[in-house]
Amino acid sequence: MVGRPGGSLPVVGNVRDHALPEGNLLNFARHIAQILGEHGYETHLLDVVPAHVEAARRNCAGLASAHVGDARHMPWPDRSADVVLFMGPMYHLSERGERVRALAEARRVLRPNGLLFGVVIPRWASTFIGMLRGWVYDDHYAAMVRAEITTGRHARPTSWPDLFVDGFFHSTDDLRAEMADSGLELRDVLPVEGPAWMAQEFDAAWEDAAKRQRILELSRLAEQDPAVIGASPHVAFLARVT
């Protein structure tokens, strides 16, 4: 799915500096790039956070390159990549025009029939998490999720400084329209966590073979039902150059 060994595979990480400590989920793109490089792919990392790029250069021997940069201005030539991975730009870029611009850049660097794989955060993510944790009873949090559900815009309240940074949360219709405007065809949408993120004591359940199989069974069923895809905190998408 991610191209041939020896092919060119850009991995685009965050598009802004969050001033968060190294080792958190914002480094997800760097770890993916490391794994792919170790498996023989010519993998290039682009991340706006200099500390992430420096960490990648120090720790990811399999990377072909690591650059400080922005998804809206990729440093690679036209039709030079088999696959582009978007691990951050779609939910960190708040403005629709900026997301379409980043998608158009991915299309530019992809070869004919090239693939774009990325992740979005669904509009209902904060609501489900807030319901489980009791956060929705706070008026500021509730106002935030109302805006997310109705507009997709995520703006962290000042009274909740530890929440996810400002950005955009997608519906499937949002994603499909942005793909079309950038010249890409949306081929598939799949939940990343699926219902598994709601499992009580997940780590312990995962170590139990029978419980792990039940989690996987229900997660696979969820992948086939468009009605529940948006209940996952993260949703993956696959697009192709049209």
Run of helices and strands:
EHEHEEHHEHHEEHEHHHE
What is the CATH-assigned architecture? 3-Layer(aba) Sandwich
Number of strands: 9
CATH level 4 superfamily: Vaccinia Virus protein VP39
Specify the structural class: alpha/beta
Your description of this structure?
It contains ten helices and nine strands. α2 links the parallel β2 (42-47) and β3 (65-68). 38% of the residues are buried. The chain has one domain: Rossmann fold (3-Layer(aba) Sandwich). By secondary structure, it is an alpha/beta fold.
Write the layout of secondary structure elements.
Elements: E1 8-12, H1 28-38, E2 42-47, H2 50-59, E3 65-68, E4 81-86, H3 89-92, H4 96-109, E5 110-120, H5 125-133, H6 139-151, E6 153-154, E7 167-168, H7 172-181, E8 184-191, H8 202-207, H9 209-223, H10 226-229, E9 235-241
Parallel strand pairs: 1-2, 1-4, 2-3, 4-5
Antiparallel strand pairs: 5-9, 6-7, 8-9
Quick tags:
globular; 242 residues; disordered N terminus; 40% helix; seven-stranded mixed beta sheet; alpha/beta; Rossmann fold
Compact summary:
The chain has 242 residues and is of the alpha/beta class. Helix content is 40%, strand content 21%. The two termini are 17 Å apart.
